[in-house]
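Hi all, long-time lurker, first post. I run a small reading group and we've been trying to get comfortable going from sequence to structure in the token notation. Rather than ask abstract questions, I figured I'd post a concrete chain and ask someone more experienced to write out its structure so we can walk through it together at our next meeting. Sequence below, copied exactly:
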Amino acid sequence: MTTFYRRIAAELPSLHPVLRIAPLSIIVTSIVACESPYRDRGILSKDVSDQLAHIDGADLASLGEAGPLPSASVAPPTPEELAGLEPGQRRQNIDLSEVRASVLENNLGIKVARIDPAIANERAMRERAKFEWTFGIVADGGRDVNFEPPLQAEIWNANVRPNLNVPLADGGQLDVDWKLLYFNDQLNSLDNQDGTGYQSVPRVSLTQPLLRGGGRLVNEASILIAEFGQRRVEIRTRMMVQQFLVDAERSYWRAYGASRAFDISLESYRRAVDQVAVAERLAAARMAAGTEVTKAKYLAVSQIGEVIAASEQLRARSRQLKQTMNRSDLPLDDSVVITFTSGPELIQYRFVPQTVLDIALRRRTEMLEAEVAIAEATLGIQVAQNGLLPKLDAFGTTAPVGFGTDLGSAVGGSGADGSMTLAFNAGVRLQVPLGNEAAKADLRAALYQRLKELATGQNRRLSISREVYDTVSRTKTGWQLVVATRQAVDLASRAYDGVRMLYEKRASTITDLTQSLTQLSDSQRSEASAVVSYQLALLDLADATGMVPGRAGLSIDSDISLPAPETGDPGSDPDAFLKIPPLLEAERSSTVQPTRTVSTSSSRPSSTGPVAGPVSSSLRSN
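-- Answer (accepted) --
Happy to help. Here is the structure in token form:
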């Protein structure tokens, strides 16, 4: 393309001056068309563009340190080493009230969902402005030339016409304008001498539909539909906020269950290590064979895998909870170990399914959305019924027309040279479609839409009923499982203590002790899982009834702040609106506690001890 431009430039001097301008204009136009004005706007940086065209290879050695596999003779870590914190780690106490407050304050998903109702409200406000008055003005002037008899003259004229348009709520239109004309030549209605002439025509026009398109309901239907859309967005926002809070509490209880599983695995490992010491003491006293020491060590070493797996699960569940809370003092790495201070609520509830279902049908957002959809479909039927009517419009115009040689006499119609004449017209306009199939089809579609919304609402009612019955059943069986597993733990603990005493007295074997220890660990894990499952069942019951966790509830408008919109004039600095505004960034503070306290939780007694930290990376020998 550059060579082509150079060739054209070399031939320009030999061309006619007029012909030289054309190629230059073509070249300039083509250059402007080829060069995009957005190439240097920073939409994609150079680094991003380079990464899109290149795939890097993975060099694992550059990502960390490499080391050989240690020998099998290395002594296993102690329980204290597995339970201890790594260098640089610290503990952070977290309860359910802090989790809920952090979610409301910092969760990016809630910030995004909170903006949607504001956008829907602005759309409804825009639709409500359809009845705003409009003022306009037209001004023009020029010279008219007419060489046909009897008038052969050049007439200079000027025209000023301000106007006001008033849309009416029942579908009519009221137009008020005032036409002022100036003539600088002969005016037949005045004296037959050359001079100036003025014309004043204030006019009022009214058009009013009487059948189709008339009435406040039909003309305000678009406003009602926009408000229905606003209600839909508010309902969905409520649903999303509730889901975020429920998911946050689920993350808390799952992380709590992972911490309990880690405690149980660590305690089982500690018992196995203690048993190694007992076996070595019995072997030294020649009361047990050396193979029992080996079996006891194998039992202890086999417990390390479960401790490591439980530790990794605790890390993953803690990161998920930290991500949900999005607090600056809870980074996603392992530098902070969470201690869960809100224990489970071990209270038996006896729910009446029908009572819970009645509450759910009143509070569930799905049923509220179905009611809005049915109301919107009903409005559509009423509008479609109006479309079946013939179109009959009444219209009328009145205008006092004034003439004069000066502006005052033309406006007032007074003076020797002024005159005033009233002009008016009125009538009706009728349009009757032959067949009216389009309006009939719209009505049938509106009827089908309402039937669809009614069926959707009934289907949601059945789904909510099933969810309520399922959750009520899970709370009942969940409590039974909690009671059964606690009894199993008590029996397994007493059985283990008895077998251990018999083993020290040489009345049982190491195999019996190993089996008893395994049964105790399994029963403790089952109890912890049952307790967490019961808490999740209670949480699911609250969610199924359309309520947020906690007893106080919350207000979306007051408890969840709305980010302020961007300020500025788009025309003053268009490039500024290409930048990403920091609307969704969480407020960062140096304090440990959250900046907002929301009373959405009830105080629950803690039934667990301290939560052990993750597995230490430095394993020393026994």
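A couple of things your group might point at:
The beta strands are 90-94, 134-146, 153-167, 173-184, 196-209, 336-340, 391-404, 419-431.
The longest strand covers residues 153-167.
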